[in-house]
Structure formats: C-alpha cells, structure tokens
Write a structure and sequence with these properties.
Blueprint (H helix, E strand, L loop, with lengths): L2 H22 L4 E3 L1 H7 L7 E3 L12 H11 L8 H13 L8 H38 L8 H36 L6 H70 L9 H5 L2 E10 L4 E10 L4 E2 L3 E15 L2 E9 L8 E9 L8 E13 L1
Parallel strand pairs: 1-2
Antiparallel strand pairs: 3-4, 4-8, 5-6, 6-7, 6-9
Length: 373
C-alpha cells in the first residue's frame, strides 16, 4: 500500500468521523406511543417513547373494577339470568375466580370498592391537611416578633426571597446559554478539507469539496442561528425578571433603613386596644377539622406616641373558638407588614372544629405596639 492510498484512507476516515460527531449532536425525536403506532415507526431507534405520558389506569384492585363495571352495566340483581351471564364474563375479564356464585363475588367487590374509596378519600384529606398546615405555618411565622422587629423580619424575608429568585433566574439564563453552546455545531475547516481533496484527486476534487464544505457550513450557521433566535426571548425575559427582582429588593432595603429611624411608643397592649375595634368576624371550617378565622381591625381614634407623634398599631391577636363555654381551638391573627392606620383585615388558621357544630369566636389582643408613621 503506497503513501497516497494511506493518506486517502486517513482523509476519508476523518470525514466520516466528523459526520458521526455532527449527527450524534442531534437530539432524537420524542413522540408518544400512540403516535408511534399511528405512524408505524415504533421499531425505529430514532424515536423515544414518552413513557411517563402513558395514560395510567386509575382505581384499585381487579375486584374493585369488576364491581364498578357490574354497577355500570346494571348487573346488581342476580336473580336475573342475563345479569349472572354478564357478571360471569366480567369476572373472566379481570381473571377472578367464582368460588360459590357470582353474587358472592359481587359482594366481595363492593367491599373492595369501599376500601379503595376510603383509601382515596384519606389520601385526599392528607393532601388538604398538608396545604392547611403550610398556610398556617406561613401565617404564624412572625407571631413572636414584637415591636419593630416584626416588620423588619417581614421585609427582610421578602427581600431575601427576591434575591434568591434573581439568582435562580440568572442560573436559568446561564444554563440556557450553555445548552445552546453545547448543541451548536462547529463549522468545518474548508481549507483543510480542500487541501486533503487536492492531494487525493487534484484541483477539480478540491473545488468540489470546498463547495460542499461551504454548503454544509451554511446549513450549520442557519441551524445555530435558528436555535439562538428560538431561545433568546426566554433568556432575555429571565434576565429582565432577575433585574426587576434585584431592583425591588433594593427598594425593600431602603424601606428597612428608613423604618429603623422610626420611634417605638411605650403604650401597653391594653392602652393601644382602646383605639381599635374588631368587626366582620367569620369562621370557615374544613372537612379536616381545621378552621380559618377572618376579621377586620379598625382604628377608631387617632393613635399618638410621645404626645403628638402620629402612630400606627402593629402586633398580633388571638382568635378563641368556643363551643359553648369550652375553647376547642385558637388561631393567631397577625397584622400585615405595615400594621394598621385606618382599617385592615386579619386571618388565622387553627384546628379542632367539626363540620355541622355551632361555634362562637372571641378575638383578643396577644401583643400590640405603637410605631411612628
């Protein structure tokens, strides 16, 4: 084998290697099994099934499904022969053996269905309780902060949430850019390919090779530009949102700095409560036994500290839920971040009630303070 032949083999090997690298960067097309079956391409290795999109069969056991289908088919009276025949076919459908008669199997199915229904209901109630606990935890986060510390904690948490969101959006944008860079194809070096072709087949082959390489590069550039254009709006939106989050965080930091200069009055909770009133109280009871108390707090008389400094009221109330003379539950009700200067709503969540029972609500102050407006 002479040197020219060896060189040609090397050039051709490099060509196919580059083609393999380019093709390997293409993402396989993803379709559903239904579409694959429709297009008769389920055996193609170029397609990946979305397994997680297969419709799942809801319900419980085969015995439970047998019972449901019997009810839907109107097969509940087994003194009628056609009902017996239909139920027997359904039992075979679900691979159920009939030990005595189909009526007994139907009763077993009814019990299985009752158990499945109970389990599903308990799971549903568990999810409701979980959401209620999360909401209660969020409401009660600032119960024990007094004076100016409550607002500062609230504002600081809001600021940190915005800064964390800005970091998430920045990271998202960075990953989008990295993804585009990874998927972008690198253009071929026409000079190298042209020189190799010239060595193998002369000037004519070199010119044709350069033309093909340039054509391939044009396709690569078009694909890369299309990919950049398709991701650019999402990336820019994320970066703009991140910038907006940081701007809002800076504004909150300025609020904190200004609030630090506000004076705190020395009035007691009872003295401040004389300026306030509670109205529009309502009670909502959940099927889990949790309850939500809502009310309005109104400033009836202007509040001042140190004689003539206009002030706002801030702090926390307690809602006592009573059944007769007995307290069955309580909930903390925290004033919003800016306290109250005229009128505002408060909400609290607790546990211990039952649907259908009659309750009364007594809202009392837990701790209150007066702060310069």
């Amino acid at each position: 084998m002479d040197d020219g032949t060896i060189f040609a083999i090397i050039v051709i090997s490099i060509y196919f290697l580059i083609r393999w690298i380019i093709e390997s960067k293409k993402e396989p097309t993803t379709i559903s099994p239904e579409q694959a079956a429709k297009e008769n391409i389920s055996g193609s290795s170029d397609y990946i099934y979305k397994v997680n999109e297969r419709p799942s069969l809801l319900g419980g056991t085969n015995l439970d499904r047998f019972f449901i289908e019997c009810v839907l088919a109107g097969c509940e009276d087994f003194s009628i022969k056609k009902n017996v025949e239909k139920a027997t076919l359904l039992a075979k459908k679900y691979n159920l053996s009939i030990d005595t008669d189909v009526a007994s199997l139907f009763e077993k199915g009814k019990e299985a269905h009752r158990k499945v229904s109970t389990d599903l209901n308990e799971k549903r109630l568990f999810e409701i309780r979980k959401k209620e606990r999360e909401e209660a935890d969020e409401l009660n986060r600032y119960v024990y902060f007094r004076g100016k510390e409550k607002r500062i904690r609230m504002l600081t948490d809001s600021k940190n949430k915005l800064l964390n969101r800005a970091k998430e959006l920045d990271e998202f944008s960075r990953k989008m850019s990295q993804g585009v860079a990874r998927q972008s194809q690198k253009e071929l070096n026409w000079a190298s390919w042209g020189g190799a072709a010239s060595a193998i087949g002369g000037t004519g082959l070199a010119i044709e090779t350069v033309r093909q390489v340039e054509q391939k590069n044009s396709q690569i550039r078009a694909q890369n530009e299309s990919m950049i254009r398709s991701t650019l709006p999402t990336t820019m939106k994320a970066l703009t949102s991140a910038s907006d989050c940081r701007r809002r965080a800076e504004e909150i930091q300025k609020q904190i700095e200004l609030f630090n200069e506000k004076m705190l009055g020395d009035q007691s909770t009872d003295e401040i409560m004389k300026h306030l009133s509670i109205s529009n109280t309502s009670l909502e009871i959940s099927e889990t036994g949790a309850f939500k108390v809502s009310a309005m707090v109104t400033v009836n008389e202007p509040l001042y500290i140190f004689g003539d400094v206009p002030a706002l009221a801030d702090g926390t109330f307690i809602a006592h839920v009573m059944e007769g003379e007995q307290e069955v539950g309580k909930a903390y009700m925290i004033l919003p971040v800016d306290g109250v200067t005229t009128r505002t709503g408060i909400v609290g969540i607790g546990d211990g009630c039952k649907l259908g029972n009659t309750y009364s609500i007594n809202i009392t102050p837990y701790h209150l303070c007066a702060i310069e407006q």
